[in-house]
Amino acid sequence: MIETLRGLGLDYAIVAAYDAVPGRLAVVAIEKQSTRGRFQAAVAVRCDDRDVELIGGRSAPPPHDQVEKRLRAAWRERGGGRVATPSMAPAAGFDAHVEVLSAAEMRARFGGDVTAAGIVPARVTLANATPRTYGVTVPLIALWRPSGDLVRPLPWADARARLVVSAPAAGWKPPDEVERMLLHDRVLKPGERVDGIVLYPTGAYGTVDVVVIDDRQARAVRVQTALPTTR
Which of 10, 44, 60, 96 is the most exposed place for a label (fewest CB within 10 A)? Predict the structure, then answer.
């Protein structure tokens, strides 16, 4: 996937590449600076010994959505297997709840208001009440802005840099303590529940967009819900 992205000659930087579910799901995140502010698109690639599937979807308003079309075409040319988009049908029994932390909760967790560092922390709770196993990867837990932009979580290296620059004056907890609060990629088995903190760039958000991977059928399922109003 990285070779495919580089071969396209896009004006995007590869900011993350790792196994979300070792041996089954890898994630490559690409990013660029646009005229509308910071933009991050996440591309998930499911791999096993039989097939490779690029899981795309609407990443941002034009012209960014053209990137996915070019990426899919290049992936096909490389013989990379099936190309699909996440199903818009809800995953019945899989619940995703995302809530931006209030100022009081931020002080309790971080020791201060981290929005001063350009960070919006959200508490993410995922509950799998289905008989299926799902792969969960943090870059695919996104938020929609009222403007129509889809915003991905901040890569930890970026969030850490923002915290380190502002920490001496702000007085919040060291980055290592913040990192221990974060939600991490994992497999969510039937009946399991997980929660943690996910960090987003500063902005107003209205809708949650979560894509999870059905491990058995190797397909993507999208869960969308409204973002609760911050207290």
Answer: 10
Cα 96 to Cα 127: distance, rounded to the nearest angstrom:
7
Give the Cα separation of 44 and 62 in Å (integer): 20
Range 2-20 average pLDDT: 72
Quick check: 151 and 205 in contact, CB under 8 A?
yes
Domain boundary assignment for the chain: 2-84, 94-226
Comparing 158 with 215, the larger pLDDT belongs to 158
What tens digit of pLDDT does each residue of 85-132 get? 656 556 678 899 999 999 899 989 998 888 888 999 999 999 999 998
pLDDT of the residue at 231: 47
* Measured distance CA(110)–CA(170) in Å, rounded: 10
Q: What confidence score (pLDDT) does residue 90 get?
A: 61
Secondary structure of the chain as H, E, C letters: CHHHHHHHCCCCEEEEEEEEECCCEEEEEEEEEECCEEEEEEEEEEECCCCEEEECCCCCCCCCHHHHHHHHHHHHHCCCCCEECCECCCCCCEEEEEEECCHHHHHHHHCCCHHHHCEEEEEEEEEECCCCCEEECHHHEEEECCCCCEECCCCHHHHHHHHHHHHHHHCCCCHHHHHCCECCCEEECCCCEEEEEEEEECCCCCEEEEEEEECCCCEEEEEEEECCCCC
Q: Over the chain, what is the mean pLDDT?
A: 77
Q: CA distances (Å), 122 to each of 125, 141, 170, in order? A: 10, 11, 19
* CATH of segment(s) 94-226: 2.60.40
